[in-house]
Amino acid sequence: MIQIDDLIKDVQSRFDARNIAVNRVGIRRLRHPFSFENQNVVGYFDMLVNLPENIKGTHMSRFVEILNEQPTVLSIAAIPLWLEKIVSRLQADNGFLQVQFPYFLKKAAPISNTSGWMDYDINLRGIFEKGCAKTYITVVVPVTSLCPCSKEIADYGAHNQRSHVTVTVCVLPGFSLEDLIKCVESTATCELYSILKRADEKAVTERAYDNPKFVEDMVRDIATLLKTLPTIKGYKVSIENFESIHNHSAYAEIDNLSAKTI
Amino acid sequence: MIQIDDLIKDVQSRFDARNIAVNRVGIRRLRHPFSFENQNVVGYFDMLVNLPENIKGTHMSRFVEILNEQPTVLSIAAIPLWLEKIVSRLQADNGFLQVQFPYFLKKAAPISNTSGWMDYDINLRGIFEKGCAKTYITVVVPVTSLCPCSKEIADYGAHNQRSHVTVTVCVLPGFSLEDLIKCVESTATCELYSILKRADEKAVTERAYDNPKFVEDMVRDIATLLKTLPTIKGYKVSIENFESIHNHSAYAEIDNLSAKTI
Amino acid sequence: MIQIDDLIKDVQSRFDARNIAVNRVGIRRLRHPFSFENQNVVGYFDMLVNLPENIKGTHMSRFVEILNEQPTVLSIAAIPLWLEKIVSRLQADNGFLQVQFPYFLKKAAPISNTSGWMDYDINLRGIFEKGCAKTYITVVVPVTSLCPCSKEIADYGAHNQRSHVTVTVCVLPGFSLEDLIKCVESTATCELYSILKRADEKAVTERAYDNPKFVEDMVRDIATLLKTLPTIKGYKVSIENFESIHNHSAYAEIDNLSAKTI
Amino acid sequence: MIQIDDLIKDVQSRFDARNIAVNRVGIRRLRHPFSFENQNVVGYFDMLVNLPENIKGTHMSRFVEILNEQPTVLSIAAIPLWLEKIVSRLQADNGFLQVQFPYFLKKAAPISNTSGWMDYDINLRGIFEKGCAKTYITVVVPVTSLCPCSKEIADYGAHNQRSHVTVTVCVLPGFSLEDLIKCVESTATCELYSILKRADEKAVTERAYDNPKFVEDMVRDIATLLKTLPTIKGYKVSIENFESIHNHSAYAEIDNLSAKTI
């Protein structure tokens, strides 16, 4: 059957004489609703492939077709299949997929047990190069940090604040996003909750004061745990404390990822 | 039954001697998954009430409880019920609800008929004051604009660009968000699509060139249509062209909303 | 002398038959370096005028010319002159100017006296309507808040966090931005500093614990002070606490501005 | 002389038994006014050092002191001196400095010669590791792109839009930021201006139509030029077209930087 586009010139497919390969080309910031591990969310999609040195352009609409031909169902385990689909449809050697979206965990408050949704920013990336697919995931886990110096030098009180722990890992089979988030939350001064009744507020206030950590302490404690996790290969942890006594952040990072991840 | 919190001091409920009422108090930027008119989306919730001059504070956790006691189902028509629930649970006179989220419409390309999801930013607000609930909705509709001056003075070509049309209306019974979006898209130089095959690209290119509009033209044409819409009471339209020849925007607005809406 | 543009059609100046006046039209988000009360800063400019019902379009390049014909020198007191210049150059009845930029105050730490620059976000707006110019200024003052409930119910410690106090006022002659900022900082649980040595950190930690305030307390205390300020006419105060125990904000506002300010 | 802090415990300097080095620790997002190559601008500073495995924490206030002890004067050539100052003051082996700020060039319109400031986002980074300082700079150059396919298949017109060209280079002696920006602008479909009179608008409209380029064309043409630039060592170019016919971007990148740059 003749497609309607077959009657129209295909400028993209022409020969390109500059002899320069393009590492990645495609679409960015396409917002799309999808299901991620049984949660209905909305995310921004980047879908890219390489372009050989002798071809003028890629076919952008095909990326969007891949997303729209049926309801989009994503999971960490399915990233290699998505990369395969992209590479095959675009007739490319390398493929790249990046999806940024919020992820939710139902969490119960520590004393009252009242439960609510906590939200986490996710950046899920797949890279297909030299016949091999790798999956990276970045999660931002918001936590409480309480300053050990402030606690020790003050006669009472201690400054504390919300902090963002950003962890990037290269995932291996068996990886659990929920486990990674819980690992981070367990090493923080205190974790966050969407609902806290008064009994809970008393508990988290005391827990935080009992558990002071510098940004350096938290990054080391998380790295210590990640080193033992069998379902990841390499990690980068960075922490940003939105200081309650300054208008800038305290920051620390430990990076043992060998590759560029973005 | 005695609740766990009954054993703990309730600082918020105390008498406040400053004698100053607070217009709005509550929670902001709570990210939460929900269903909006049968679409599964994620949004940011602001939930506020007034606080009388003689009470020290409001009970913040109750707002979050309202959202978490069952799966959140929102619709434009249900906003008054949500306001009622907020005001009643917080024992307040006035209530305010604001939800910011993306909304999607399935759109078919003009020639090939290939279809994909187009996304629109929504800000849905309900205000309950003096016993009366009002519902406002703001939608950002991205469109194409093509400059009439550029077309007329140049021997060929015409600069064009993506533009954001932002419409705020006070809704009456029978209001349809989809109709409002289509009304805006029909008055633009051209509408946007998530998928365009080559035959479609030819069509939208020619349609845009045939239909040049200044930012002033578009704002007037949309206002003309909105004036005749029986399901709204008042409107504000603003348009921002992300000029392809400048690093700043061209902007125009027509505002006949009598009230502060935020 | 004949200008080069006189030889080219002026599409904008044509008659418009739709008979709809445009409230505001012009340029937005133009980034420009300037001097504000002797500080060298960079800001985003919006410059708008009304457009009568019988004219097709405004002349956008004139706004940019106003900014570029000599080094831009701004002050709060000079806003009416700027509005006059805009209205006169664009041959309009009404004019609007909005400039968003950071403002800095040199602040000494409370004990060590070490000094550094604190930054504040400013939104300076002028509105010229019906022959009358009004100047509004919005400043975001970052401060510390410490929760009175957390302090009272916990055996030790208290959650605290960075907060943003956003104040909008209509300025009268004699208004001082620095005084407004200091007024806000003095009513907060504690103020922020860019540099704190250990002796300072001890002082602010104890000061914060001695001075717990709900978001409701801070908004009332600031409103109380603003009511007595002779150099402003009307104010809106809103406060957002970036809660260290939640991933959302606590928020309160008191609004006695009679007009839409944006 | 005894400093006031000598009387207070120094928690940060204590021994740390976890035996984990921290790659980078310090301050982030500190907004500060400064002079960059004789322009007065405002930027966000990140200042980081490594932390050996046996020390508990770094001394955050020293970074802020470095910025505040005298008016901050930055240049690309001075980055190694800044790194030296940071490393020496913090007694560290490695140092990292990142400054994000807007940069301005005075540009004359092509026909009328009217001139105005064009703005460019800059990210200037210095890395001191193993005794060696490297300086990277990223600049975002906004340009016009016009689609060759749209032009060729349509009977008239062609969709065009604003695009961001983001170039990161490792700089060698003699590097000129202005030359890099002009190199990028010269390879685009057309460059942007802050002021265009009608004669200029005619010229840029026709120039754009005469010079259609895919995102793939622009990334290749810029890479071709960068290859020949003797004052850089390695480059990454990425281009994002904010498509005027879609609500997502077209994107391409060519990356020959051997190192992680962030």
Main attributes of the structure:
10 strands, alpha+beta, 262 residues, homotetramer, elongated, 6 helices, Urate Oxidase
Q: How is the secondary structure organized here?
A:
The structure is a homotetramer of 262-residue chains.
Chain A: E1 22-36, E2 39-51, H1 60-68, E3 73-74, H2 79-89, E4 95-108, E5 115-129, E6 132-146, H3 148-153, E7 160-171, H4 177-187, E8 190-191, H5 198-210, H6 215-227, E9 232-241, E10 249-255
Helix content of chain A: 10-25%
Instruction: List the secondary-structure elements of chain A in sequence, H or E.
Output: EEHEHEEEHEHEHHEE
Largest interface, chains and sizes: A-D, 50 and 50 residues
CATH class assignment of chain A: Alpha Beta
What does this entry look like structurally?
4 copies of one chain form a homotetramer. With 262 residues, chain A is α+β, with helices and mostly antiparallel strands. Chain A has a single domain, classed as Urate Oxidase (Roll), CATH 3.10.270. Chain A is elongated. In chain A, strands 1, 2, 3, 4, 5, 6, 7, 8, 9 and 10 form a 10-stranded mixed beta sheet that branches. In chain A, 54% of the residues are buried. The model of chain A has no long low-confidence stretch (mean pLDDT 96). The longest helix of chain A has 13 residues, at 198-210. Chain A is built from 6 helices and 10 strands, in the order ββαβαβββαβαβααββ. Chain A binds chain B through residues 4-5, 7-10, 30-33, 39-42, 61, 64-65, 67-68, 101-102, 104, 111-112, 114-117, 119, 194-199, 202, and chain B through 4-5, 7-10, 30-33, 39-42, 61, 64-65, 67-68, 101-102, 104, 111-112, 114-117, 119, 194-199, 202. β10 of chain A pairs antiparallel with β1 (22-36) of chain D, so a sheet runs across the interface.
